[in-house]
TrEMBL record:
Cross-referenced Pfam families: rve_3 (PF13683)
Lineage, top ranks: Bacteria, Pseudomonadati, Pseudomonadota, Gammaproteobacteria, Pseudomonadales
GO aspect biological process, one term: DNA integration
Protein's recorded name: Transposase
Domain Integrase catalytic as annotated: residue spans: 24-90
């Protein structure tokens, strides 16, 4: 289960944390006052939802997994340009850096 708290004390309360523990759920919270901790993932999810996932959704979990995996591993990493990488897809930008670092 994903719960998106907006820096609210109810999600940090003892009762809420005890219930998470009881159901063996792990809480993930940003540092206090830092709403940017998760911004890279938020941006990825926005791109995924707006560019790839059909508005009607998927018929099966397997179909969703296969299609989203294709988007992430092929289109997002190898084809889609990223402003941060001077317009290069992440995998291409990394390939360009590897010879410089001696890791490629």
């Amino acid at each position: 289960m994903l719960q998106r708290p907006v820096e609210s004390t109810q999600y940090a309360s003892r009762l809420f944390r005890q219930r998470l523990w009881r159901y063996r759920m792990q809480q993930s919270m940003s540092r206090r006052g830092n709403c940017w901790d998760n911004s890279p993932m938020e941006r990825l999810f926005r791109s995924l939802k707006s560019e790839w996932v059909p508005s009607t959704g998927y018929l099966t979990a397997q179909e969703a997994q296969r299609d989203i995996n294709h988007y992430l591993m092929h289109r997002y990493n190898w084809i889609r340009p990223h402003q941060f990488n001077d317009g290069l897809p992440p995998a291409v930008a990394e390939e360009k850096l590897n010879p410089l670092s001696g890791m490629g």
